[in-house]
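sorry for the late reply, my laptop died twice this morning and i had to redo everyting from scratch. anyway the thing you sent over, i finally got around to it. pasting the sequence first so we're on the same page, its 165 residues, then the predicted structure underneath. double check i copied it right bc i was rushing
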Amino acid sequence: MKKTNDNYATAFAGESQANRKYLFFAEQAEKEGFANAARLFRATAEAETIHARHEFKGKGGIGTTAENLVTAKSGETYEFTEMYPPMIEDAKAEGNNEAVRVFNYANEAEKVHARLFEEALANLGNEPEGQDYYLCPICGFIHKGSEPSANCPICGAKPSIFTKY
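ok and here's the structure:
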């Protein structure tokens, strides 16, 4: 069973990455005016999502909402405490300012994500329905509540470009 579980994890990672990659490829194809290629990339991305869902479920990756919130908070916390800090330092050491910016944005956004997951867990079942979240499309910051009125605290993006969820 361990080998199968490891294979599920490897397959899930590969299918998940393929999904995102194909969605990015679709955006590029659309920018270049290749609508058919964009549709193919999007359809294939969704196929990869189907595979990933089955593999993630197969390895027992989906629990109760409370369990999933704990798992999500743990993953976000790992990213901002252990994963991104050395990446930021490596990028600085190499003089790669673009990577420093990208990793810093993600690192700061992950802190917010972990806090939001913690709040959601604490309020699970007690929060009124209809909670809105607004995503900054530049850095990944998430604003909870009414429509944001101030620029993004991480990257400075105007609130008018945030996406409502």
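The first strand starts at residue 133 and ends at 135.
thats about all i looked at so far, will dig more tmrw
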